[in-house]
């Protein structure tokens, strides 16, 4: 269940393929959006709260982008203030929601102050159909004292494999997420989430991933997932 | 991967069994805790941000608690400021974490302002080894516009099945979480998370759950999980 943010990244990616401005620009993605307030801040660019290691990994991947084999995916925050023109069939369900509360809608992964929650940047390799997400989790993602909450890890996995499904299949929804937590991840770690599109069968997309330490010596988590392309005629009410 | 909060609930539950003050009191749980700052606010008691429906469900379950068949589980926030004496074997891994950041540690499910994130209350039936969690998700848990993020749902599932494992087996860690997302859940909905301990095999605890609408007419999500009792001699470093 991914947000407009991902759809925007898909738009940006399409823009790149069409020779539009590079992913750092919010320009091409705007085509997908018409009905919400949007923050222009691209959260996948370095911020003061990023650690030295996070910045170093960002620079390394940006270097890989120079020959076009990797693409830096942008990441914007949205504030949903009204019905989405992109998801017209969801209108009925949305009408069940308290309008005032809906106006406060914030993307889950962007609803923390800088550095306290989810800081991440994703890079996509189109030839290999895979994404690497560099994730720096903040102190407000704690579960067992000193470690990330399993739900926070599940959230970043969902965001990463979901993005991989979106850039491969368009607008999708998470149908299954199967996560093996092998080792707890120390709070405030930086980890790599390596996602891979395994196969597409009709409307189904199968994506797997793992979560590793930056030096790749520790395998923290493995996961498989199933995404289904949305049938825009179907109502979820 | 559950936090001190759950361990505290277990302590409170044990206190009840030993004839200690009722679960509303933070007293009995204190036995488990020695090394962190604790907020005394019990988040599982009604708050102004709870909707009328949430309050109604709370009252209905509190009535079920009167004959002792159900127990209202308390829920506290913790702020981890130093090493945990309850998890001594995690010390080495914790030392890898930036001390300043660790001091900002907040339980993931309690790191939102009232009403914007996770509002929930859990009730435990000891005879049936099951928990019902009444969950009111706030607008900052959004994924696809107008709906909860899959990661937010995974987080509440992890918290609920994890609590079920803890009250049945002591200190545990999530080993596997397998979630089928059947229908998207409208943002700001109140839902019931019904968790059930299925079996215990040695150190393994198997817990399943589903997420339903309050009227039980809509099945949103189903999940299975595996928890492993912690070997306190094992290091995660």
Automatic annotation (TrEMBL), chains A, B:
Subcellular location: Cell projection, Ruffle membrane; Cytoplasm; Mitochondrion inner membrane; Mitochondrion intermembrane space
Native source species: Myotis lucifugus
Domain Thioesterase: 146-215
Domain of life the protein comes from: Eukaryota
Composition bias type Low complexity, residue spans: 17-32
PANTHER family: ACYL-COENZYME A THIOESTERASE THEM4
Molecular function as annotated in GO: hydrolase activity
Keyword Hydrolase in annotation: yes
EC number(s) recorded for this UniProt protein: 3.1.2.2
InterPro entries: HotDog_dom_sf, THEM4/THEM5_acyl-CoA_thioest, Thioestr_dom
Protein keywords: Apoptosis, Cell membrane, Cell projection, Cytoplasm, Fatty acid metabolism, Hydrolase, Lipid metabolism, Membrane, Mitochondrion, Mitochondrion inner membrane, Transit peptide
One Gene Ontology biological process: apoptotic process
Membrane topology classification: Peripheral membrane protein
Protein name, as recorded: Acyl-coenzyme A thioesterase THEM4
Reactions the enzyme catalyzes: dodecanoyl-CoA + H2O = dodecanoate + CoA + H(+); tetradecanoyl-CoA + H2O = tetradecanoate + CoA + H(+); decanoyl-CoA + H2O = decanoate + CoA + H(+); (9Z)-octadecenoyl-CoA + H2O = (9Z)-octadecenoate + CoA + H(+)
Secretion signal, residue range per the UniProt entry: none
Basic and acidic residues bias: start-end ranges: 33-45
Enzyme class: hydrolase
Main localization of the protein described in the UniProt heading: membrane
Gene: THEM4
UniProt record similarity statement: Belongs to the THEM4/THEM5 thioesterase family.
Annotated spans, Disordered: 17-45
GO cellular component, one term: mitochondrial intermembrane space
């Amino acid at each position: 269940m991914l947000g407009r943010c991902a759809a925007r990244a898909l738009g940006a990616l399409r823009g790149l393929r069409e020779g539009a401005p590079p992913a750092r620009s919010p320009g091409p993605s705007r085509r997908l959006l018409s009905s919400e307030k949007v923050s222009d801040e691209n959260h996948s660019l370095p911020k003061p709260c990023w650690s030295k290691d996070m910045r170093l990994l960002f620079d390394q991947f940006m270097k890989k982008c120079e020959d076009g084999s990797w693409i830096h995916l942008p990441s914007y925050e949205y504030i949903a203030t009204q019905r989405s023109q992109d998801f017209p069939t969801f209108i009925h369900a949305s009408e069940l929601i308290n309008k005032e509360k809906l106006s406060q809608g914030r993307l889950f992964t962007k609803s923390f102050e800088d550095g306290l929650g989810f800081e991440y940047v994703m890079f996509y390799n189109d030839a290999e159909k895979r994404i690497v997400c560099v994730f720096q989790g903040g102190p407000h993602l704690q579960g067992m004292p000193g470690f990330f909450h399993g739900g926070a890890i599940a959230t970043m996995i969902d965001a990463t494999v979901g993005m991989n499904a979106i850039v491969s299949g368009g607008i999708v929804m998470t149908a299954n997420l199967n996560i093996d937590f092998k080792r707890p991840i120390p709070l405030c770690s930086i980890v790599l989430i390596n996602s891979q599109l395994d196969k597409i069968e009709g409307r189904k997309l199968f994506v797997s991933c793992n979560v590793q330490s930056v030096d790749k010596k520790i395998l923290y988590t493995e996961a498989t997932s199933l995404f289904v392309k949305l049938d825009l005629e179907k109502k979820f009410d």
